[in-house]
UniProtKB/TrEMBL annotation:
HAMAP family: UPF0313. The keyword Ribonucleoprotein does not apply. [4Fe-4S] cluster binds at residues 393, 397, 400. NCBIfam families: SAM_YgiQ (TIGR03904). The keyword Transferase does not apply. The lineage of its organism: Bacteria, Pseudomonadati, Pseudomonadota, Gammaproteobacteria, Oceanospirillales. Its cofactor is [4Fe-4S] cluster. It holds the Pfam family Radical_SAM. It comes from the Bacteria. InterPro entries: Elp3/MiaA/NifB-like_rSAM, Methylthiotransferase_CS, rSAM, rSAM_horseshoe, rSAM_sf, UPF0313, UPF0313_C, UPF0313_N. Residues 707-717 have a biased composition (Basic residues). Keywords: 4Fe-4S, Iron, Iron-sulfur, Metal-binding, S-adenosyl-L-methionine. Residues 693-717 are annotated as: Disordered. This is YgiQ family radical SAM protein.
Length: 717
């Protein structure tokens, strides 16, 4: 049974609280001297510039530890080729905390087509090259090099999404858990406040990391499964043959055919039996009759070596990981890496509202560290007038990693806390003119949405609360969000509040009053939404709603815009080259765009980020959302660079640069009827294209049409 979590602020403060609150967490020995510190208790090493703002992870965790009484220093974007950079604050008394920053270092550096980006939004002046590839590994190794006896704690999104063996798009191979490769002592995944506070106080009391092997929200390396535990072999789920009929504990009862199977002939428990000897090893189909103690049962995933060599087992392991994500029923996972065992403890218990309020209510300066001078940090400029009102996402989109990192349970701030932050922005942030750029989070409209039944919540293993349809147990009223918008607009000095976070429109249509409020007061002409695709077979692999829901929302949006006397447009986002998306699917999407008179300029190609279910599809060519076996049909993967470019070209069918590529593709597909000048044609014939691109006498290219081209969505002339 899950034990209640200790309140985040119930720990007795560490003795160093007498130093009080630092204006900024120190980044140099000179700053430490001014504060009267002889040393730091914790030193945080990050790949981002230090911005003292609640949208930057190191600022949040640093201020949290400071509130617990610890002295925290920050080493931001160190030169990883110079060991002295990691010694500039001295030796930490407790540990180094290492993160790549707010983004995975490889996603930060490379595009989906593996091209090097020209800038880094989390660096002064946007300068690229200020962090290494695989920053968590590099920083950890440098910390170990300079102070061999200091514990190393890794976390942040790069570590979180690489906590088990994972497919690495950049090297096109399965890599080991980052905990193994970095040589760190412990990994904290997700939003790690609970684990971080408990770990830090325990170390300060003289405990060792060996005493903290069962800390929720962490991954550790063990020699073997602990004595007294039972080990369930995950590869025995849905064993081929007559055993398929045995009830599957991973089955989504509300979703047809949403169970997982593999048909390996042996589990990992048989490999290295001399090294791993728990009390009981139980094949999964027999576990319901085994009378296992749920508090002493772990799930053995296929080993790193097996998932590296067998893509079906990789897809299976990914599915099991995702279905062991509910903090109230998840069991520890164990995965063998050579002679070592990576042990993944269950996720942390979500923060309560008063804990969230405290975390966001620290004395943040809300500006970059003074050492950066007047340098512009693009990521800060983007969020400095925005407010995060919640965490988590229960959408479960297969291509997105938010759920894997922050969890499916929404963690909310109180309205009072949010309104107070709006006042802080008004009074403290330089350059504020009265406009709040965003009031949202991972999504715009999941604030205070929750499961109606605590009992159901604590037993549920669904991957999504809104796919294939909205769960009947989900509270979908947006009354709290609507009330928040209305209260926020009443604050003196707040002239306008935009909603820039992505809107989950399948939820919004359940509450027309919310849509009316949003459209009337918080849409500045354009509203971002993300249908992602139009074709059902692709949407199903994305775990996204069908286009009927989009149509219903658009009608509602247009009606309320007209009632408000506003000319407003939806800005739809689409993904090219998603697993399962064939050329004909992209062609149909392009035809839909043309029928809608949309010319979409902001498009993206599928990016296989670590740990997502869509990445498991990309690597394995199998769909882990459905029953799997080695005989399962493989799904189409647009993997080749030319295939990916073609699919992206369909999204931008209106761009003359794409017409030669699309012409050849349509010919190959036997769809020459879509080439020409007729009303049903998608692109012009070659001779027509020449005429279209020939400037007419007296026609200036830089006319108003050029201005319209800058809009994300526009109607063709």
């Amino acid at each position: 049974m899950t034990q209640p979590a200790q309140h985040l602020f119930s720990y007795y403060p560490y003795w160093a609280e007498c130093f009080g609150t630092a204006p900024f967490l120190p980044m140099s020995r000179e700053e430490m001297d001014v504060l009267g510190w002889d040393s730091c208790d914790v030193i945080l090493v990050t790949g981002d510039a230090y911005v003292d703002h609640p949208s930057f992870g190191m600022a949040v965790l640093g201020r949290l530890l400071e509130a617990q009484g610890f002295r925290v220093g920050i080493i931001a974007q160190p030169d990883w080729n110079n060991p002295e950079e990691f010694k500039k604050l001295g030796k930490p008394n407790l540990y180094f905390g290492v993160t790549a920053g707010n983004m995975d270092s490889l996603i930060n550096k490379y595009t989906a087509d593996l091209k090097v980006r020209s800038d880094d939004a989390y660096t002064p002046h946007g300068e690229p090259g200020k962090r290494p590839d695989r920053a968590v590994i590099v920083y950890s190794q440098k910390c170990r090099q300079v102070y061999k006896d200091v514990p190393i704690v890794i976390g942040g999104i790069e570590a979180s999404l690489r906590r088990i063996a994972q497919y690495d798009y950049w090297s096109n191979q399965i890599r080991r858990s980052v905990l193994i490769d970095s040589g760190a002592d412990i990994l904290l995944y997700g939003n790690a406040e609970r684990a971080l506070v408990e770990l830090t106080h325990a170390l300060a009391e003289g405990k060792t990391l060996d005493d903290l092997q069962d800390l929720r929200g962490t991954a550790v390396v063990r020699d073997a499964t602990p004595a007294g535990w039972s080990e369930v072999d995950s590869t025995r789920i849905d064993w081929p043959g007559h055993i398929d009929q045995i009830p599957n504990p991973y089955e989504m009862k509300d979703t047809e055919n949403m169970s997982c199977s593999t048909n390996g002939t042996s589990g990992d428990s048989a490999e290295g039996a001399d090294d791993v000897m728990p009390v009981k090893i139980v094949p999964m189909p027999l576990q319901r009759k085994a009378g296992l103690d749920p508090d002493k049962t772990c799930i053995r995933l296929p080993s790193f070596e097996k998932v590296r060599n067998d893509s079906a087992l990789y897809a299976h392991a990914s599915r099991v990981l995702h279905q062991e994500a509910n903090p109230y029923n998840a069991r520890p996972l164990i995965q063998k890496h050579g002679h070592q065992e990576v042990w993944i403890n269950p996720p942390p218990i979500p923060l309560e509202t008063d804990e969230m309020d405290s975390v966001f209510g620290f004395a943040y300066q809300r500006v970059p560290h003074p050492s950066y001078g007047d340098a512009k940090i693009p990521a800060y400029d983007m969020i400095r007038f925005s407010v995060n009102i919640m965490r988590g996402c229960f959408g479960g989109c297969t291509f997105c990693s938010i759920t894997e990192h922050e969890g499916r349970i929404i963690q909310n701030r109180s309205q009072e806390s949010i309104l107070h932050e709006l006042e802080e922005i008004r009074d403290k942030v330089p350059g504020f003119t009265g406009t709040i750029s965003d009031l949202g989070g991972p999504t715009a409209n999941m604030y205070r949405l929750h499961c109606k039944s605590e009992t159901i919540l604590k037993s549920c293993r669904r991957l999504s609360c809104v796919f294939p349809g909205i769960c009947k147990n989900l509270e979908t009223s947006h009354e709290h969000t609507t009330a928040l918008y209305r209260a926020a607009r009443k604050i003196p000095g707040i002239k306008r509040i935009a909603i820039a976070s992505g809107l989950r429109y399948d939820l919004a249509v359940r509450d027309p009053e919310y849509v009316r409020e949003l459209v009337t007061h918080h849409v500045g002409g354009l509203l971002k939404i993300a249908p992602e695709h139009t074709e059902e077979n692709v949407l199903n692999k994305m775990m996204k709603p069908g286009m009927g829901t989009y149509d219903a929302f658009k009608k509602m949006f247009d009606r309320f815009s007209k009632e408000a006397g506003k000319e407003q447009y939806l800005v739809p986002y689409f993904i090219a080259a998603h697993p399962g998306s064939e050329n004909k699917d992209m062609m149909n999407l392009a035809l839909w765009l043309k029928r809608q008179k949309m010319r979409v300029d902001q498009v993206q190609t599928f990016y296989p980020s670590p740990m997502s279910l869509a990445t498991a599809m990309y690597h394995s060519e199998r769909d882990p959302l459905h029953r799997m076996s080695y005989k399962s049909d493989k799904i189409y993967i647009p993997r080749d660079l030319n295939q990916r470019r073609l699919q992206k070209a369909f999204l931008r069918y209106h761009d003359p640069k794409n017409w030669p590529l699309l012409r050849q593709a349509l010919k190959d597909m036997g769809r020459t009827d879509l080439i020409g000048s007729g009303p049903k044609a998608l692109i012009p014939a070659e001779e027509e294209a020449v005429l279209r691109n020939t400037p007419r006498p007296g026609f200036a290219k830089n006319s108003k049409a050029g201005v319209r081209n800058k809009r994300p969505v526009r109607k063709p002339r």
